[in-house]
Design goal:
The two termini are 37 Å apart. This protein has 11 helices and 8 strands. The protein is globular. Helix 3 links the parallel strand 1 (51-54) and strand 2 (73-76). It is α/β, with parallel strands linked by helices. The strands form 3 sheets. It has a 4-stranded mixed β-sheet with strand order 4-3-5-6. A two-stranded parallel sheet has the order 1-2. Strands 7-8 form a two-stranded antiparallel sheet. Helix 3 (64-71) packs across helix 5, helix 4 (80-91) crosses helix 5 (93-110) and helix 5 packs parallel to helix 10. The chain has helices spanning 16-20, 29-39, 64-71, 80-91, 93-110, 118-129, 139-149, 153-159, 177-182, 208-226, 250-253; strands at residues 51-54, 73-76, 130-136, 170-174, 191-199, 234-237, 263-265, 268-270.
């Protein structure tokens, strides 16, 4: 049984349309998810139909990602973590398919061991805890990216506040299902691993559904062409996003335990 969730929160806007397509009063969770998967003709990297299956279908000793790649079955438990994972499959199927292809390829190459390697680590972080930040490909968008990568939180969230939201230069979509699960009970310290994507002015004229489709295709294509490592992300305290939390005054952003400065190591800077 899924707990009550406040779907009006801005961080759930990414997957809210997929949630609205499910009739959980009539169907079980897996039946409802599979109805949508069939309607969308979802496929795994090998082209097999995608289906959400009970966790018990995953054989002992077989990696989760390997199983999806080989069978099209996504082992799904009756919990929030797997429910959000399924909603992301219904929302960004191309990205999820490409991530599964990257993970399955790494398992085939190196097996399942204690060390995942940078590509599989990157894919796991993307899958579990990422946000997608679409910025306008302009001087304003580049300035906002520089502030975020430099952990200049006051510049990003106060001085450049107007760049977020309708008519602005920034568009945030949550992707990580573990991140969404944590935000059911939001805490100020929750931080996303964020991938930045630049888009032209046309993107910012599109409706939300068309933006989702554009982003799904664009990011999946980037992953296929460029691969993925942990270095591709920058941290983003999600409740710091303008309008995503009440009480975002100066004191809110002065909390150095959350809005940490860039850490310097041996003359160089790196993300904490």
């Amino acid at each position: 049984m899924l707990p009550s969730i406040d779907w009006t929160r801005p961080w759930f806007a990414t997957v809210l349309p997929a949630r609205r397509q499910l009739d959980l009063q009539r169907d079980t969770v897996i039946a409802a998810l599979n109805g949508r998967a069939r309607a969308l003709d979802l496929r795994n990297p090998s082209g097999l139909p995608l289906a959400f299956v009970p966790q018990a279908d995953l054989p002992e000793g077989v990696a989760y990602e390997e199983f999806i790649g080989a069978t099209g079955g996504v082992p799904t438990r009756d919990n929030l973590h797997d429910f959000f994972n399924a909603l992301v499959w219904l929302t960004f199927p191309r990205i999820k398919r490409q991530l599964n292809a990257l993970q399955a390829a790494q398992i085939a190459l190196s097996g399942v061991g204690k060390s995942r390697g940078p590509a599989r680590d990157g894919a796991t972080i993307f899958d579990e805890n990422s946000a997608l930040l679409v910025l306008r490909d302009s001087d304003a968008g580049r300035a906002l990216e520089a502030a975020l990568r430099g952990h200049d939180w006051r510049s990003a969230f106060i001085a450049q506040r107007e760049k977020f939201g309708a008519g602005g230069d920034a568009d945030v979509w949550l992707f990580g299902h573990a991140l969404m699960e944590k935000l059911v009970a939001p805490r100020k310290a929750i931080t996303a691993h964020t991938r930045v994507i630049f888009a032209d002015d046309v993107y910012f004229t599109l409706d939300d559904a068309t933006r989702r489709a554009w982003l799904d295709e664009r990011v999946a294509q980037d992953l296929a062409q460029q691969g993925l490592t942990t270095a591709d992300f920058t941290p983003l305290p999600v409740l710091g996003l303008p309008g995503w939390c009440e009480g975002q005054d100066d004191d809110f952003y002065n909390d150095a335990a959350v809005f940490r400065p860039k850490r310097k190591v041996a003359g160089a800077e790196r993300d904490q």
